[in-house]
Amino acid sequence: MSVHRLFCLILFLAIVFSSQGFAETGYNDPAMILSFADWLYSEKEFERAAGEYYRYYFVAPESQKDGVLSKIGFCYEGAGDFAAAKKVYETFLAEYPESKEFEDVYYRLSYCLFRLGEHDATAVRLAEVLAAGAAQPARLLLLTGVNQLALEQWDAAQLTFQAYCETPDAPQKETAERLSQFAISAKNIPEKSPVLAGILSAIFPGLGKFYAERNEDAIASIILVSLFGGLAAYSFYTDGVESFSGWTFASLAGIFYLGDIWGSAVAAADYNDHQKRLLKESVDETISEFLP
């Protein structure tokens, strides 16, 4: 091998090894990790961003760890993984009770609990932070009121929304007033009594279903009970009380009669549930406009 070729080979290997060393250094450089995590977050690549923030968390200065951990929670929220976000926020509250982000994370944890359907736990968390004298009580009050709606605590929700509207500089007073009206509407939802529906159908088949606004079912009940009852009466009239067909038709009429009584009670309960679902859908639609 000539000296010239040997020199080129050494130069090439030096460039390759130096490039690899630079790449490895850049990959593990804390500033590069954080920059990449921020970029992923801005691109809404939340799960990948959470992984990069975790990498940075273990090498970050102690003074930055609380902020990084809260950002990991934000990433999981952005990805819709509220259970993972909840765990991160619980870790934050346990490890950084003196952090300036403590109240914000407490709110985020309460919101995750709300989204997970853990409404009783949400109420406890919000009550704790409000009792401690929150620096920004408005958003906590708003979430408290929404959670009370989910718990069907209509009077409490109405009072909470009123308190929110009385809070200085509350940014969403119009929304709170709408939600307060929902609470008032929920208290005044017209309900049907399952007991009364059953009694009405016992008096006259189908009447309880008319009461529960199941008109088609009511007409079907009247026809079936009347048909088999009439056939039973005709069979008994023509063949006597020992008529097999008479007892068969009478049994069917009795089954449909009792079924109508039970069905009327169920229909009344379903009516009440449907009215509550309609209200809840309206509340959820309003909530989605401003939460989180």
Put the structure in a nutshell.
This protein is mostly helical.
Let me know the CATH homologous superfamily of the largest domain.
Tetratricopeptide repeat domain
Terminal CA distance reads 70 Å
The main pleated sheet reads as: none
Radius of gyration: 34 Å
Structure description:
This protein has 292 residues and is mainly alpha-helical. It has 2 domains: 27-189, Tetratricopeptide repeat domain (Serine Threonine Protein Phosphatase 5, Tetratricopeptide repeat), CATH 1.25.40.10; 194-286. 79% of the residues lie in helices and 0% in strands. Helix 13 runs antiparallel to helix 14.
Which tags fit this structure?
292 residues; single chain; Serine Threonine Protein Phosphatase 5, Tetratricopeptide repeat; mainly alpha; 2 domains; 14 helices; 79% helix
